[in-house]
Structure formats: C-alpha cells, structure tokens
Design goal:
Elements: H1 11-18, E1 29-38, H2 45-56, E2 59-62, H3 63-77, H4 84-109, E3 112-120, H5 125-134, E4 138-145, H6 148-157, H7 165-185, E5 190-193, H8 199-212
Parallel strand pairs: 1-3, 1-4, 2-3, 4-5
Length: about 210
C-alpha cells in the first residue's frame, strides 16, 4: 500500500473512538471546574484521577489516551512522515488540537461541566490556563509528589504507550526539574505526596479540599 501525504484528521474521527472511554457525559453538573494536575510520570496522576472521576462523576480526559487514538488513526491511514520525531510531533499537535475542540464541544453541550484533565500542567500551564479561561472554567490545581526512586520503579512497571520505559527514565530528571520549577512559581490548591499516602487517602484529601471550595 502506498503511503499517503500527511493531513490533519477531523474532530469527528477521533471523538467517535474517544467517546467510548468518556464517562458521565450525560450527568448534569453545573460546577464549571477543571481539576488539573502537576506531577511527573509515575507520581500517580492517572490512578488518582480515575478515583476522582468515579467519586465526582466528572469527565476525565487523558491526553495519553488521545495520543494513542491519534497514532492508531495515522497508522490506519498509512500516512507518511519524515522520521519518528516528525511523527511524534504531529501526533502531539493533533492531540492538543483535538483537546481544544473537545473542551469547546463539552462547553457547548452544557451538561456535565466538571472535568478532570489527566496530564501534567508543569510544561503547559499557560496554554491550559488560557484555554480554560476562554471557556469560563475555574481551575482546581493538584500537585502530586513522589521521590525519584519510587518514580523509577513505577515507570518500569507502567504501560508506556508511545514511548518505551528507557526513554521515560532518560527524560525523568528533566520532568522532575520542570515539576520543581512549576511548584516554586505557582500556588496550587492542594499538595499530595503518594509516598506518604495511599491512593485512597490521597483521593479522600483531594475530595475534602475540593468540596470545601465553592
């Protein structure tokens, strides 16, 4: 089969697949808030966000999940890329473009206005802040901490998706630094250390703090 020239895929193409993984779309929740995380891979963001999704009946949006869908659609279309870096960047750009479109779609839908963004703010805070501000979402920010040794062990056992474990481990020091810089520059709503608290305890503390804020 011949390779096709790259072209963007549509919102509908991605949403048709992604919708199967989005829960609580029909739940009516007028609290227009986005729960957002700061933390490096392996800190426990996704595990905690899944617990929060269930407890709050919020719409959880995981960027890694979107990237996987975009990547598979690219493969099905047999698109041509200059190299792996070009492919990675196009998948990344397409994924965030879809995220913007999805948030606008959910805003227009006017049902469940409570969302969880299951990815880190550390390297894209101003992008996310601008996006959410334009849609009148309040941000409830959560910092997830874990020591480097524990992060390395967790990364070795996690599903690495598009990147293999060795690349995650190589990038880990940079991610830790980004997280440290972000936390030094921003005051978040709650700080959680998953080395000291279980997932259940972490979730409980977050819920208590979140529900206390009107």
């Amino acid at each position: 089969m011949n390779k096709e020239t790259f072209k963007n895929i549509t919102f509908e193409e991605i949403y048709l697949i992604h919708k199967r993984n989005l829960k609580y779309l029909e739940v009516r929740n007028e609290r227009r808030t986005a729960l957002c995380f700061s933390g490096v891979p392996g800190a426990g963001k996704t595990t905690i966000s899944k617990q929060l999704e269930k407890e709050l009946k919020a719409i959880r949006i995981e960027i890694d999940e979107i990237r996987d869908i975009v990547s598979k659609i690219f493969e099905q279309k047999n698109l041509e890329f200059r190299d792996n870096e070009d492919k990675y960047l196009k998948i990344k750009n397409q994924s965030y473009k879809y995220l913007e479109q999805l948030l606008k779609y959910l805003h227009k839908n006017k049902k469940n206005s409570l969302i969880i963004l299951d990815f880190s703010l550390d390297r894209r805070y101003f992008y996310v802040q601008s996006l959410l501000d334009n849609l009148n979402y309040k941000i409830f920010s959560i910092s997830i901490e874990a020591d480097e040794e524990q992060l390395r062990e967790r990364i070795k056992t996690r599903d690495s998706g598009m990147l293999d474990h060795s690349i995650y481990l190589k990038m880990l020091p940079n991610w830790i630094n980004d997280h440290s810089v972000f936390n030094s520059q921003h005051k978040l709503d709650i700080y959680i250390n998953t080395n000291k608290l279980t997932i259940e305890e972490s979730t409980s503390e977050i819920l208590q703090q979140f529900r206390a804020i009107k």
